[in-house]
Amino acid sequence: MADAAIRVLGARKVYSVPGKPRRTAVADVSITVDAGTIHGLLGPNGAGKTTTLKMLLGLVKPSAGTFEVLGADSTRPSGRRHLGFLPEQPYFPIHLTARQAMRFYGSLVGLEAEVVKEQTASLLDRVGLADAERTELSKFSRGMLQRLGIAQALLGSPEVVIFDEPASGLDPVGQRDVRNLMLELRAAGITVLLSSHQLSEVEAVCDRVTILNRGTVAAEGDINALLNVDGRTSVRATGMDALPSQVASEAEDTVVSGGVWVFSVPTAATRTVVDAIDDAGGTIVAITPKRESLEDYFASLLASGPKGVES
Amino acid sequence: MIKRIWPIAAAVMMDSLRRKVVYVVLVFAALLVLAIPSLPDYGLGVESAVYREIALALSYVTGLVIALSLAANRVPSELEKRTVYNVLSKGVSRWEYLVGTWLGILGVMAGAIVAFTTVEMVMGYFTYGELMWRLWQGALATWLEMGVISAFAVAVSSVAGPVVVVTATLAALFIGHSRSTLLGGEGALAFKPFYPSLDAFNVVNPVAHGTGVPLVYVLSMIVVFIGFAGVCLSLGVALLGRRDL
Predict the structure, then answer these.
(1) Per-residue pLDDT tens for B195-237?
(2) Contact A63/A47 with Cβ under 8 angstroms?
(3) Chain A residues lying within 8 Å of B4, measured CB to CB
C-alpha cells in the first residue's frame, strides 16, 4: 500500500457565535490520499469541502481532528512548506504584474531569486501566460487569474498540491489543459487533492474520490468501483436494424444513435447476447462493465445520504 | 523566518507607493511647511522655535494620517479579498504575516518622515539660515510613536474593519496622551505606572525650544517603543491566531 501524502482524521468544525445556534460545518470527515495519486473531493454546496480544506491548510481552526501532509501537522506553518494550494477563485494584489506576483510568492516559499526567475518563466509558460508576464493583474481576465493561481501553487515544486475548483472560470480548452496538467503532475509523482463541482473533470483524472454530504463522508473509494454497476455489462454493437429477440429480452437502457446500439445486459447473459448479435450479422464494438455516470451516482447518493448534521 | 517576513514587508511598501493618499498627504503637508513663515503672527518677529514646533506638529499629523490609512486597511482588505490565503498556505505563520505587514508600514512611514523632515530642514535653512538638526530627534520620536500607533491599529485590524480600527486607534491616541488629565487626582496615582502613556515620545519642548534630547532619553524612547509595539503586536497575533479565515 502506498504511503499517505495527506491524512485527515476525524475532522470536525463547529462554528459558535454568541446568541446564535451552533452550526456544524464539518461533523466527521476522514480522508486518506495516497502519495502520487489524484484524489477527488466531491460534494454539493455546504457539504464541508472548503471548510475541510481550510482546516487542512490552517486557515480555519478545527474543533477536532488531525491533519497531516507528508506526515507533518499541516495546521502548523512548518507542515505546509511542501504544499501548493490553489484557492477557489484566487485573488491577488491587482497592482502587481504576473511576474511580480510570482516573485512575491516564490520568495515566501524561500526560493532564491534566480530559481524564482526560472520557475516563473517555466510555470507561466506551462499555464499559458508566457505572453502576459509583464501585464498588470488588474487587466487579467477571470481565466487568466485562475491560470496564475495554478502557477503560483506550483512554485517551489511542491510534493502535494491542493486544487480547489481549478477549472472554474476556464474555457473548455483551459479545462482540458488543467486536466492534462494534473495528469502530468501525477506522472511526476506529485499528489493532487482536487476539490471540484465538475464531475466530468473528477471522473477523467481521479484515482479515488471522497464524496462529502452534510459534513460527513458519504462515500469513498476507487472511482471505478464506485461507478461500476454490479452484475451488469454494457454492450455497443452495430450492423443491426433491430435487436435480436434474445437480446431485446435481456437489454435495458437501450439507446440507438447513428446505427450504434448501446444497452446493458446481465453479466451472466453476456455470452448468449454476443452469440445472438453475431448470428444476426451484427458487430460487437465494445463490451465493458456497466458504469453509472458520476452525475447519476452523485445524485442518488445525496438523495439517500445522512441527515444528521445540524445546520 | 526573516525570509518570509521581509517579502511581506516589501510588498506593503511597494503597495503603498501606488497609494495616492501617501503622496497627497505629503504634498499637502509640505505646502503647509512652506506656508509657515508667511503666517501673520509669525511674521512679527517670532523666533525659529515656533517654526520648529509647527514643523514637528505637521510631521506628527502627516505620520498619523499615513499610519492610519495604511494600518487600518491593509489586513482587513487582505482578509476580505482572501489574498491572504495564498500567503498563509505557503507555510507563513500568522505572526510572520502580521509582523511583516507592520514592518512594511514602519518602512513607509520612515520614508515619508525622512522626506518630510528633509523638506522642513531645507525650508528652515533658507528662511532662518540655520540647520535645524534637532528636527531629526523630533522625527525619530514621531516615527517611534507612529510605530506604536500602527502596531495597535494592525492588532485591531486583525479582527475589525477600517472604521473600527481608525476609531479605536484615535481613542488609544487620546488615552495615550491624557495621563495627567485622566489620572490627575490623587486617588488614581497608584495606576500611573500601568498607564499606557505615549508622552514618552513628546519631545516638542526640548527640540523646538530647548537644547535637544539627550542620547539616554532617545535610547529610553526606543525601549518604550519596543515594549508597547511588542505588546500590541502580541495582542494582534493572539487575535488573528484565533480567527477563522
Answers:
(1) 788 888 988 888 888 888 899 999 999 999 999 999 999 999 9
(2) no
(3) 108, 110
A184-226 tens-digit pLDDT: 999 999 999 999 877 778 888 898 999 888 889 988 888 777 7
Whether residues A54 and B245 touch (CB distance < 8 A) is answered with yes
> How many other C-beta atoms can be found within 10 angstroms of the C-beta atom of residue A300?
11
Q: What is the largest CA-CA distance in chain B?
A: 63
Q: Does B244 touch chain A (CB under 8 A)?
A: yes
Q: Per-residue pLDDT tens for B98-117?
A: 999 999 999 999 998 998 89
Instruction: Judge whether B162 and B76 are in contact, CB under 8 Å.
Output: yes
Q: How far is B2 from chain A (nearest CA, A)?
A: 10
Picking from B238, B104, B49, the residue whose alpha carbon sits closest to that of residue B158 is B238
CB–CB of A61 and B7 under 8 A? no
Would the CB atoms of B90 and A80 count as touching at under 8 Å? yes
Kindly identify which residue of chain B lies nearest to residue A93, measuring between CA atoms.
B83
Which residue of chain B comes nearest to A100, CA vs CA?
A: B11
Which amino acid appears at position A128 of this protein? G
DSSP state string for A62-114: -SEEEEEETTEETTSGGGGTTEEEE-SS----TTSBHHHHHHHHHHHTT--HH
Whether the CB-CB separation of B228 and B150 falls below 8 Å is answered with no
Which of B7, B18, B89 has its CB closest to that of A104? B7
Domain A4-225 bears CATH identifier 1.20.1250.20: no
Q: What is the pLDDT of residues A103-141, one digit of tens each?
A: 999 999 888 889 999 999 999 999 989 888 898 888 998
Rounded Cα distance, A126 and B132, in Å: 58
Please report the residues numbered 13 through 42 in chain B whose beta carbons come closer than 8 angstroms to any beta carbon of chain A.
15, 18
- Whether residues B91 and A54 touch (CB distance < 8 A) is answered with no
- Per-domain residue ranges of chain A: 4-225, 229-291
Q: What residue has cell string 503622496?
A: B23
Mutation choice for B interface testing from A104, A108, A140, A165 by most B CBs within 10 A? A108
Its domain, for residue B102, covers: 2-242
Question: If DSSP codes are grouped into helix, strand and coil, which group holds residue A188?
Answer: coil
Total domain count for chain B?
A: 1
CATH of A229-291 among 2.60.40, 1.20.120, 3.30.2010, 3.30.70: 3.30.70
* Mean pLDDT, rounded, of chain A: 87
B15/A85 Cβ within 8 A: no
Cell triple for A253: 437502457
A162 neighbors A56 (Cβ within 8 angstroms): yes
ipTM summary value? 0.79
Q: What is the pLDDT of residue A310?
A: 37
